[in-house]
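Go through this one:
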Amino acid sequence: MIDIKIIRENSAIIKEGLKKRNSKFNLDEIILLDVDYRKVLKENEELKAKRNKISDEIGKVKGTEGQGGREALIKEMQSLKQKIKDSDEKLNGFETTLIEQMFYIPNIPDETVPVGKSPEDNKVVRHSGEVRKFGFEPLDHQTLGENLKIFDFKTASKLSGSRFALLKNEGAKIERALINFMIDIHLSRGYKEIFPPFIVEKKCLIGTGQLPKFEEELYKCGDNEYLIPTAEVPLSNIHREEILTEEQLPLKYVAYTACFRREAGSYGKDTSGLIRNHQFNKVELVKFTKPEDSMVELEKMVSDAEEVLRQLELPYRVVELCTADLGFSSAKTYDLEIWMPGEKKWREVSSVSNCKDFQARRLNCKIRRGKKLEFIHTLNGSGVAVGRAFAAILENFQNSDGSVSIPKNLVKYFGKDKIT
């Protein structure tokens, strides 16, 4: 959430940030609402100040000679109580509406983010690994998986409908191997492992920015409960309503979870095999940092996610997203994209973001610095999406006979060096 003080004192900065994002959010409505809110707040404070003054005057009345004046003051006090009650209700209504509207304002891009109008304006920062040259026409991962009898999308559809995957035999085993492999890498790089609940309360999703704007993307499973779209949600909420010390930071968490997304609006679009399923597995990274350290920690987190791809020997590139392609809560984001030879395209496998104090303001998570309290900065990133890494291994390590070799660093987790 954006600081209301910045909107009041320098709305031009916010408007410029929204313009860079190509956001159509009308900040003027927030500004006018805030003017009305402050007007009611001032009236409310004046009424309460008057009440306190009358209360003092009543207390000063001595003896029977001042009884008439005392009764007049008491009568005025009773009238004030009703006015204050009405004013409190009006003030609470304005405050609730103001906060609800502010929940729809996206984060403002960091000044280092390249300005752009579409994903085509994203900037490729670097490449790693060589794109393999095949002596045969490479197959896509869905065809490979079905030929090897490790994917069964027909049965998945019978069980759950479209866009779910059923993994079996070596398919189930390699998914599990990849999860353990990724977790171990991140533990070696200083992260603390968490296994969180897969169902969270509504306030958790408000805290990280999925609600109220992206309700249609979520699976609701109760009056106040939702299936998590990513482990970022429970991990970021671990320190909701807490005050941390400088000595505690940075805090670094890693978690494997299943993730659940409706993917509304993507019907028939780029949804083959293990891509854009409603349920998928992901290893997620989350950091809580000092404000002055968050950009350095962002680069470190990108490197942590890259390490997974380096050890899997997958060709990838790092892409810096432009202003128009940033996620709602992000101030700066890097995507990691792997080469998919069967599809002949780059596929995102990780998105690593610095949200600065945007989420912390919604979560009310602060750092104590002497007598001063300050909002911390939060970062999150995939470390990495398991299904997409699985798909990339199938396509990049396929052989002419239809078998698939296993990256050497994954063999000890999988148990053998080839799927036939």
